[in-house]
Design brief:
Number of helices: 17
Radius of gyration: 22 Å
Oligomer: single chain
Structural class: mainly alpha
Length: about 450
């Protein structure tokens, strides 16, 4: 039954993509994050939904008469250079078969990141994109939060099999990055039920992230939570929800959870941590010896036998920084870090330019929450290999588009005029929904 339902939903939505290609971006986003086909047990489990959606969306995009304008900023230009560098290193990778398989996944993600920047061309579409991301990942957050409370926190919360976020560590980081986006939607919602629903979803998602028993996620959620409180317009409500989460977890989490988190202090005795440190040393040694790195999936036994302090302790990098360093070299890491630094500064300019203008305050709120998500990614990513995961790149595009829609110029002193561009109704408001339905 699930197989039929998922198939009907995807192919039913495809009928609208031919006329409105931006709906194809939303459909691809839903499949990429939620992986609904992975929740089935029959033919739909391995059916190529994403490929079919991609073909239809790209075809509709090419034949569409809509204006096709890519917002070329220093962030998107640097992203394009980073993509080209990934391709270049793949040609010279140590393990070509493994490297091309990873490139095959990476370029598809980046293609739709670029299509998102082109087709999401007004605030209303941007809000729908955020809603799709939040609903897709929030599904696992709500489900995982309820599971954690029901099981007493004794089991790991896992993601959909065969996806970027299939493991407990990866899912936890994705949920942590989603929480600020939930909070943004809550701040914009006019309907009381939607606001309350998002508040409950935020609490359950935070519980799910901690219930994953990921030590990196614990550090990430602490950093993200502090910045979320710091950036929130409603510090009292934010603080109350945080206290609620801590209180609920303190009562429900078993001693085994505390014992596992305590290993952060005694990392010298933890085999997993030592394996990561060995992989990090390996990545540094490879990059020092080879300017372009070893290429995608270079963390293999022959690499460790030549470059690792302990050649027999083969381990994945489990760090976005050392993953990029080992696979793409110091040049790739420089591009990677510089790109996110530019994104952070862009968000800061949006906040400065828009926070005092009521009609553009939504952009300041979004940029602030995007920064909070990136803090979670920066901290949690230090212990997880999600350098090529979709979500941070989507957040980059959100910031670029928020700047574009509000007229924020490249320089800080060139803020948008008080009159500003017209802002379409928000899709979560009662009147916004009616206006959307009339179009």
């Amino acid at each position: 039954m699930r197989d039929v339902l998922v198939t009907a939903m995807v192919f039913g939505a495809l009928l609208f993509v031919f006329k409105r290609p931006w709906i194809g971006v939303l459909l691809w986003t839903w499949i990429s994050y939620m992986n609904p086909h992975r929740l089935t047990w029959g033919f739909a489990f391995s059916f190529p939904f994403a490929m079919i959606v991609a073909i239809v969306t790209i075809t509709a995009f090419l034949f569409s008469r809509e204006k096709k304008e890519m917002p070329w900023t220093r962030e998107t230009v640097l992203l394009l250079i980073f993509i080209c560098w990934m391709l270049f290193t793949t040609f010279l990778a140590w393990y070509p078969e493994l490297a091309w398989a990873e490139w095959n996944r990476a370029w598809k993600i980046q293609l739709f990141v670029m299509l998102t920047a082109i087709l999401i061309n007004d605030r209303q579409k941007l809000d729908w994109l955020i809603w799709v991301i939040v609903a897709s990942l929030g599904f696992y957050g709500i489900k995982g939060g309820i599971f954690t409370l029901g099981s007493g926190g004794g089991y790991h919360v896992m993601g959909p099999a065969g996806s970027f976020i299939g493991g407990n560590n990866e899912l936890a980081l994705a949920l942590i990055m989603t929480i600020p986006l939930m909070w943004y939607l809550r701040s914009q919602a006019q309907n009381r039920w939607i606001r309350n629903g998002l508040a409950v979803s935020t609490v359950l998602t935070a519980i799910a992230a901690i219930g994953s028993q990921s030590r990196g996620a614990l550090l990430a959620i602490l950093a993200m939570g502090f910045f979320l409180w710091l950036k929130s317009r409603h510090k009292m409500a934010t603080g109350v929800l945080m206290i609620l989460v801590v209180g609920v977890l303190a009562v429900n989490l078993p001693q085994s959870w505390y014992d596992r988190m305590d290993t952060i202090r005694n990392y010298q005795e933890d085999g997993s941590v030592q394996g990561r440190l060995n992989a990090w040393h390996t990545a540094f040694n490879v990059a020092s010896d080879r300017l372009i790195g070893g290429g995608f999936n270079m963390f293999q036994p022959p690499t460790f036998s030549q470059y690792a302090p302990d050649p027999y302790n083969v381990h994945d990098a489990h760090s976005i920084y050392f993953e990029v360093l080992g696979e793409l070299g110091f040049i790739g890491l420089t591009l990677f870090l510089l790109m996110w630094l530019f994104v952070w500064f862009k968000a800061g300019r949006v906040i400065t330019a828009c926070r005092d203008h009521p009609e553009n305050k939504w952009a300041a709120d979004l940029a602030a929450m995007a920064q909070v998500s990136l803090v979670g990614y920066a901290v949690g990513g230090a212990f997880l290999g999600l350098a090529y995961f979709d979500l941070p790149y989507h957040i980059m595009i959100m910031i670029v588009l928020a700047a574009k829609f509000t007229g924020v110029a490249p320089k800080t002193q060139q803020a948008p005029l008080a009159s500003g561009p017209s802002v379409p109704p928000h899709p979560s408001s009662r009147w916004g929904q009616r206006a959307w339905q009339r179009k």
